[in-house]
Amino acid sequence: MESCCCDLQVDVNGEEIFMVDKKIISSFSGRLSKLFAKSRSTVNNFKVIFYDFPGGGENFELVSRFCYNNGIIEINPSNIALLNCAAHFMEMNDSVSRRNNLLEQTEKSLEQISYWSWSELLVALKQCQDLLPEENSSGVLQKCLDSLIGRVALASGSEASPYPSNSSPDSSAFRVSCDTRSTESLKNSYSRVTWWFEDLLVLNPNLIEMVVKSMISRKYDHAIISRFLFYYQKSKFVTATSNEKQKITESIVDLLCFLDQSSVSCKSLFGILRVVLSLNISKGCRNKLESMIGSQMDQATLDNLLVPSPHGCNYLYDVNLVLRFLKAFLSKGISKISLICLRRVASLMDLYIAEVAPDPSLRPSKFIALTSALPGTARESYDGIYCAMDMYLEVHAGLSEEEQMKICCTLNYDKLSSESCIHLAQNTKFPSKTAVQALISQQSKLKSLLQETNHSRSFIDSPCSTSSNGRKGEKDDSQEQIVLYAGKLDLSADNQKLREHLKGMQWRVMELEKACRKMQTQMAKMMKSKTASHSNAISLPKLCS
To answer: 3-class DSSP state for residue 57?
Structure first.
């Protein structure tokens, strides 16, 4: 080997300074060869400063060894990414050396990636993430990602997941069987598709984003991906700083948006929401998270919704947050939401409204927004809303009658039970007009009931018809009497007398309603009996003469 002199000073990223032989280094580096060829200086000693050398001083030392060893160096998974990046940076390609160029050697070594162990592959990936964004331009990172995802899919088997796609790790599907062998089988299946979760915790959010997007593009099971993302977020939060938590959360939420929402656990989304309340995450990230939760509102529980109000707000719970959830839930269009889901959300909201109604700081406008957020078809009964209003008006006794009426306008009297209407008639917390409206609604329902009864009776022809007609006249008279009572109501009269009058009328309506129901049942039995008799008469055989 020729004697060498240290006539080149290399400053690597301000970290270290190397004294090397200019001729030896430039014989393998196209970048330095071009630089020295352009220089007209007669000075023997040169100084080169690199501000962004990939891998810093440690990697430049590897490159120097390669050059001093006549283009020979051991390339393995622990240094292949470093050497490949350096080869691109220093232009150590076939334009300088056809036989021993570093770029070609790293690419040939990369062809053996299928023979690397799982741990070697993770080492290479971790090195790639330390070199980002420089490494993103080379092929090492992409080949490592392809190999990793291929191995995960192969080890997991063709069966995507032991659970339905909309299940979560804590779902009841995992506890579906008490049989020991079945339980063990499920545990083994769960381990088979999640064995790689912990290993990927060494990767940072940027690389996790690349891994997940590659999985999505390869049609990997979204339920498994979502479970991994929640596992990653929970595990990394243990040791992360506030800034790191913010970055992790924003990255996880962005990735969850790419998944089929039926595969994302609503409970886990609420878990993220509660954790990030103290974090200064971006508004866009928060909107995405709220939108995902809102789209699964039918899967939420009352405890999920009871989120404390933001700092500086007087009311107990964050009502605005729940209203945004409802807006997101309804954004897909009522026609696209099943009635079962709609009813489930309505029941949940009735519980929530009852929980927040006693809050003395809750403004009437917010209470009205909660009670009117869902369409009328969402509720079969408004008894729950009535009870919540009763509590709200009791706590907010200082409201004007106008404000009380605005609150009561969201009440659907047609969907109140008879018991609730009676209670409303004597409830002094409600305006008198609401009691009258409740009575009118009850009368309307009774009219419909009587019409149904009369319609049913018109199909019956039996000896009982005379007595039935007598009852019909009695009910018609009673119906007219109720309507007459309603017409004679004096709204200017004393509220107490009015309520006593209404109470009596409500009881009369209930008695008539019970009588009509009983009559309908009797007529249904008579109809059934008559049909059976007719059928038996037809089936009798003719007697022989």
So the answer is: helix
> Could you tell me which of 312, 323, 381 has the C-alpha nearest to residue 356?
323
Q: Is residue 489 classed as helix, strand or coil in its secondary structure?
A: coil
The answer to whether 59 and 20 are in contact (CB under 8 A) is no
The H-or-E segment that residue 151 falls in is: helix 140-156
DSSP state of 317: B
Both tokens assigned to 98: 């056809």
pTM: 0.74
The CA-based dihedral angle spanning residues 52, 54, 57, 59, taken in that order and rounded to the nearest 10 degrees: -160
DSSP assignment string, 128-188 = HHHHTTGGGGSSHHHHHHHHHHHHHHHHH-S---SS-TT--TTSGGGGS---HHHHHHHHH
In whole numbers, what is the pLDDT of the chain averaged over residues? Answer: 81
Task: Decide if pLDDT at 118 tops 80.
Answer: yes
At residue 506, the pLDDT reads 59
Unique residue bearing structure tokens 């403004």: 363
Phi, psi (degrees; rounded to nearest 5) at 12: -100, 105
User: Closest Cα to residue 140, out of 63, 86, 74, 204?
Assistant: 86
CA-to-CA separations, 374 to 234, 271, 333, 539, in angstroms, rounded:
34, 25, 12, 55
Running DSSP on this structure, what letter comes out for residue 543? P
pLDDT of residue 512: 62
Length of the chain as a residue count: 545
Q: How far is CA 22 from CA 17, 28, 446, in A?
A: 14, 10, 104
Q: Looking up tokens 């008559």, which residue turns up?
A: 530
Looking at the predicted structure, is the pLDDT value of residue 531 above 90?
no
Q: Whole-angstrom distance between the N-terminal and C-terminal Cα of the chain?
A: 134
Task: Report, in angstroms and rounded to the nearest whole number, the Rg of the chain calculated over CA atoms.
Answer: 39
Which pLDDT belongs to residue 132?
Answer: 80
Q: What band does 170 get if pLDDT is binned at 50, 70 and 90?
A: very low
Query: Do 186 and 174 meet the contact criterion of CB atoms below 8 Å apart?
Result: yes
Nearest CA-CA partner of 427 in 495, 355, 513, 490: 495
Q: Which residues contact 130 (CB under 8 A, 6 or more apart)?
A: none
Q: What are phi and psi of 17, to 5 degrees?
A: -120, 130
Helix%, strand%, coil% for the chain, nearest 5? 65, 5, 30
Query: What is the three-class DSSP state of 196?
Result: coil
User: pLDDT: is 110 or 522 the higher one?
Assistant: 110
Dihedral sign (CA 151, 235, 291, 247):
negative
Convert 400-457 into a string of H (helix), E (strand) and C (coil).
CHHHHHHHHCCCCHHHCCHHHHHHHHCCCCCCHHHHHHHHHHHHHHHHHHHHHHHHHH
Per-residue pLDDT tens digits for 8-62: 899 999 989 999 999 899 999 999 988 888 776 666 778 899 999 999 999 999 9
Phi, psi of 47, deg, nearest 5: -130, 130
